[in-house]
Specification:
The complex is a heterodimer of chains A (187) and B (201).
Chain A: H1 2-23, E1 36-37, H2 43-49, E2 57-58, E3 66-72, H3 77-94, E4 103-110, H4 114-124, E5 130-133, H5 137-141, E6 149-155, E7 161-168, H6 174-185
Parallel strand pairs in A: 3-4, 4-5
Antiparallel strand pairs in A: 1-2, 3-6, 6-7
Chain B: H1 2-18, E1 58-60, E2 66-68, E3 77-82, H2 89-92, H3 95-98, H4 102-107, E4 110-116, H5 120-130, E5 137-139, H6 146-151, E6 162-167, E7 173-179, H7 187-199
Parallel strand pairs in B: 3-4, 4-5
Antiparallel strand pairs in B: 1-2, 3-6, 6-7
The chains are: A alpha/beta (187), B alpha/beta (201).
Chain lengths: 187, 201
């Protein structure tokens, strides 16, 4: 009976712990949660992220030194207003031979279906990869943040990503945002 | 004692699992949005039938203009988007998305009418937070929820269901989507039903 009670107590704490892990937003110095993505068919996106096609992949498979993750929603007015600035950021990264291969940018549509992500992509002519998160799986991994939310992380020696930027709100100014990212990451 | 301990642990565990509500709230609303918690998914019975004429109505809109459903007859397909209440989480996260799909409505010769049972001043403040909306926002405040009630989407607590009603150019109801009030309806419903309505002879 004591064994059963201790098992129940263990179950209680593991539930509590799982819940705590679910809702914590990754902060500076912490690891980026291992986000999982479905297989990509687009060869351009495969090449950009450095992942092979045909199979699902994890954020840890993305090639580069820094990854910038935008949590957005097509239903969010601030994300809509910020879209041109994020496009500008991508353009600035791609136009620089110094950082093009090192900084990767991607967006996660919190609660958005493929169709909803496509609508956002087409409306704002987004050319960096956007992924659906219709069931809020990744959104939960990052603590159900409000949108837009930006997380930037640097590749660490274990092959994961260490967060160095985690902030609510749009980037607003591509130049100053990129400057911050380069300063904080040392790129 | 064993049973008591088990029940206690499972109750806490279930609470912890069920506690987080899944919606991605925009920063646009900051802390102004009231969270009503998890509600009964549907709390009314539709009074309209697909294939039958949709009840006509005239309601005041935010712009000051009165909008009459039958004024779109022979001219536009109409989508009514009933949302439960201003300043609540899912509703605040629904119309801003419709704001970027005007082209889908245009392609299908359709107009969108947003309706809540809130009064005009409340709707004014709430919609301002969303920015400029391209579609009319109507107030079914007085007599309270009369239009929602005519359609059978007025809940027992006086707010409406989260409902999408598709009415063709002849004024006939073509599709009714009364979803779980706690969840935003998928955009796919709008796209599919608009196309079906527009392609029908």
């Amino acid at each position: 009976m004591m064994k059963l009670i201790s098992t129940l107590i263990l179950l209680f704490f593991s539930c509590t712990f799982a819940f705590a892990v679910d809702v914590a937003t990754p902060k500076e110095g912490e690891s980026l949660p291992e986000m999982l993505f479905p297989a990509i068919e687009d060869a351009g996106v495969q090449k950009y992220l450095g992942v092979s096609g045909g199979e699902p992949f994890s954020v840890n498979d993305i090639q580069g030194e820094v990854v910038i993750v935008q949590i957005f929603s097509m239903y969010c007015p601030h994300c809509q207003a910020d879209a041109p600035s994020v496009n500008e950021l991508y353009k600035k990264i791609q136009n620089s031979s110094q950082i093009r291969e090192k900084i990767k940018l991607l967006g996660i549509g919190a609660g958005n279906s493929n169709l909803e992500v496509d609508i956002f992509r087409q409306k704002y002519k987004v050319s960096f990869p956007l992924f659906e998160d219709e069931r809020f799986v990744i959104h939960k991994q990052v603590g159900e943040v409000r949108t837009p939310y930006f997380i930037a992380a640097k590749k660490n020696s274990e092959g994961g990503w260490s967060v160095f930027y985690s902030k609510l709100g749009g980037i607003e100014n591509a130049d100053s945002f990129l400057k911050t990212i380069r300063q904080l990451s040392g790129l | 004692m064993m049973k008591k301990a088990f029940v206690a642990v499972m109750t806490v565990a279930l609470f912890l699992i069920a506690a987080p509500l899944t919606y991605g709230l925009s920063e646009a609303f900051k802390d102004s949005v009231y969270n009503p918690g998890e509600l009964k998914p549907v709390d009314s019975q539709l009074k309209v039938k697909v294939g039958e004429p949709a009840p006509d109505f005239t309601l005041p809109s935010l712009s000051g203009e009165k909008i009459t459903l039958s004024s779109f007859r022979d001219n536009k397909n109409v989508v009514l988007s009933f949302v439960p209440a201003a300043w609540t989480p899912v509703c605040s996260d629904q119309w801003p998305g419709y704001n970027i799909v005007k082209d889908i409505f245009d392609q299908n010769d359709a107009i969108l009418l947003g309706i809540t049972v809130d009064n005009i001043p409340t709707l004014y403040s709430w919609v301002r937070e969303m920015g400029q909306l391209w579609f009319p926002v109507l107030s079914d405040f007085w007599p309270h929820g009369a239009v929602a009630d005519a359609y059978g989407v007025l809940r027992s607590d006086g707010v409406t269901e989260r409902a999408l009603l598709f009415i063709d150019k002849k004024g006939v109801l073509r599709h009714a989507h009364v979803g779980d009030i706690n969840v935003r309806p998928p955009m796919q419903v709008i796209v599919t039903e608009l196309e079906k309505m527009n392609q029908a002879p």
